[in-house]
């Protein structure tokens, strides 16, 4: 039991991230890829309704000739542009 309590204490949440002056990372992206799911394309508005409070800015991709619309990611950005959710028919990503 003591080990579990110690582990819980070490996983504390902080309100502000720690900024290091010589950080080697400028951006971190976590992406999940999966087989194409048509429901994603049809329900992007539902997804936006769920995340709108934290990600109010929407970037809709420009489509060039020959590109599949469903494979292009919509980007939902935080007000300060520091966080982004990217959603496409076959992937989901979070960037910070």
Automatic annotation (TrEMBL):
Protein name per the record: Uncharacterized protein
